[in-house]
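Subject: two folds for Thursday's group meeting

Dear M.,

Sorry for the delay on this. The cluster queue was jammed most of the week, so I only got both jobs back this morning. I'm pasting them in the order they finished. Each block is the input sequence followed by the predicted structure tokens. Could you check whether the formatting survives your parser before we put anything on slides? The first protein is the one we discussed after the seminar.
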Amino acid sequence: MQAWEPAHKALPSRRFVSGSKDNTIRVWDATTRRCLFTMSSHTMVVTCVRWGGEGLIYSSSRDCSINVWDAQEGKLVRTLKGHGHWVNTLALSTEYVLRTGAFDHTGRAPEDPQEAMKVAQQRYDAVISGQPERLVSGSDDHTMFLWAPATSKTHLARMTGHVQLINQVTFSPDGRWVLSASFDKSIKLWDGVKGTFVATFRNHVGPVFQVAWSSDSRLFVSGSKDSTLKVWDVRTRKLMVDLPGHADEVFAVDWSPDGSGVASGGKDKVLKLWRH
């Protein structure tokens, strides 16, 4: 698992962070190809890393903890505890805007890196609206926690309802919603600010591995062990389109930031592109 330093903090972005089975997190310089520093506090495998928009790096581990690190010096800021089993996945409320930087759905390109950093900062500020970024974690203990890790080590909400392990959690691009994909064959929708339960989406006949949002936060796509992708409407809470085509389990799905299409990869060794 890797994550790049956000565009509103550095452009061109040279630094990225990686998490490893050796229990460590490392920050690298992509230009010099050297490790700048190593962060070690986890006692088991690191499962996920995220580089936030407020100068912090987040890591989850099979040691049941989430660590918050200073991105400049690599110092441990705080540890978030509460999960009773492996923490599998992390997601930030700023995820979409950190991923896209200065680029929105119109595809207009900034004239130079300075303008790009400025636009990326404006887009980031618009998403957080003066509030600290939120983090959601999903675990093998069937639960999720919502955190404001920049300011507190106490969780904002404990999110329960799944009856098997949680594979993935992800915030909608506008930060209003959280989706969770689980081995219990369901996807659950949660309030992204309060952490309260909203709805369950059921139609898959196998574990759901991944979900991905459309850029307007109105639709999402899911990929499952049942070999299908499904597109869902958040407003109506209904299945919109069933997408068979893979010959085996669908491990990965992603929706392009411009909204034009979906990519999926499966156990059948095939990568498929779907046009929206």
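Second protein, same layout:
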Amino acid sequence: MADAGAAEHPMEAVLLQYVRLTNTAVDLEVLKRYHQDNTPVGAPKHPEFMELINMMLSKGKLSVSRDSAGKVFVKVASDKDRVIITLQPEEALVYQIIDEAGNKGIWSRDVRHKSSLEQKTLNKILKTLEGRKLIKSVTSVVATKKKMYMKYELTPDQSLTGGAFFSEREFDGEFTQTMYNMAYKFIESRSKAAEELPLGPYDRMEHSYVNAKQVQEHIRASRVSNEDLGDQDIRRLLNTLVYSNKITKRMLGGVELYKLAKIPESHSAVLATPCGVCPVADNCAEGGVISPTNCIYISNW
């Protein structure tokens, strides 16, 4: 392969600009014809077209792919492509597997299964990639002993961190109770305000509904906490209120709306446990990988 530090040939910029403007992968034969038709008069005859392409590949300017018929295409290299050309083949394989997992990460055992590498080799590669800050290891709130890997720059998904209701992967009951009360009081105040409107019963009921965005904005405006509740956090909080019979929910035009229940309960057994705001509660079932039996937060509670 050509030296990545070699001087730039005049046609490199010409070909790169053409590929960039197409905004898609370009058939290598089409690019070759473009090269022949647009080589400036007096430009060096060497390197030949394929040597020029190899130079651009080695510099991380272009990347190649093949379709099912074996036809070769080139495109402007992505950040991922530029990383891969600096790696050994087995390192590149592991990096791509981890990259595909996104911000939900992938268990080291699954990386070994997908790569078919021996554990000793894999451990060495993972250490190398971590050392270069290309990947990082994280743990999940539902499996603290399982080491998960993801790209270094990604923020872990809430299914791993637990979201705002977990602090250092520990369920924060006091903070959850505070947010729970704020959400409830806001919905309660909207319902009481609606009762004072000079409208019929049906219209007053319609005015008592709020959506998740309104609850989120109310909590943010209160500045009670520096912790910002995301969309998923707010929905878990509201679902806990629904499960506790404090509020009711309905769908209107694809939007979830909430209002005060007619006879709200005075105590929430659901809130007292981590279950109400657990990020993987929907996947929790007896006998499953995630279950009440092996949940460390239920055990500690």
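Two things I noticed about the second structure. The mean pLDDT is 82. The first strand starts at residue 26 and ends at 27.

Cheers,
T.
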